[in-house]
Amino acid sequence: xxxxxxxxxxxxxxxxxxxxxxxxxxxxxxxxxxxxxxxxxxxxxxxxxxxxxxxxxxxxxxxxxxxxxxxxxxxxxxxxxxxxxxxxxxxxxxxxxxxxxxxxxxxxxxxxxxxxxxxxxxxxxxxxxxxxxxxxxxxxxxxxxxxxxxxxxxxxxxxxxxxxxxxxxxxxxxxxxxxxxxxxxxxxxxxxxxxxxxxxxxxxxxxxxxxxxxxxx
Length: 217
What we know:
The mean pLDDT is 92. It contains seven helices and four strands, in the order αββββαααααα. It has a four-stranded antiparallel beta sheet. It is 44% helix and 12% strand. The protein is α+β, with helices and mostly antiparallel strands. It has helices spanning 3-18, 94-102, 107-128, 138-150, 155-167, 190-197, 201-215, and strands at residues 22-25, 33-41, 47-56, 67-70. The N and C termini lie far apart (43 Å). It folds into two domains: 3-128, Ubiquitin Conjugating Enzyme (Roll), CATH 3.10.110; 138-215, no CATH class.
């Protein structure tokens, strides 16, 4: 295994201390993975559901989420259930994933803050017929995540704002915000700039390319 896979294996052993129904699997013919059950608890700490899962190490961990699969064929493999055709979970939009990973992840925090809430939502969908706080699928979901980050609801302005962030260094705290609001930067898009800049220039350029293509579709 390379260092990334060693890291995943070490973090898996830590995660198992919090989720004892999981176990680490290391084989010469595959990347390391975790398999077992994740138990869901209600607000009174009573068990109310359980999912069998497989959590695989990606080639670029921890810059991308581990791949998570439900192994009992309980959940349909279609995007309406936020599950890709190959069975791995669509936990959030790519941009939200980039931002979360840029902050630094461990396998334990990923399971606690991403996988468990995702499975709670799946259980709610099974019972009630709809998800809570669901984003749209595809391009619209990606745009919604950018709208939330930038507090801008226009794709053209989102595009120009991200181009600015990509091309320019951090503004001074007392300068006017680059968005044209006439507010000082520190009271306007300071947090959004820092969050988006944290994902790296390569991923920012990918977002710019995606938005540029979207505008001309």
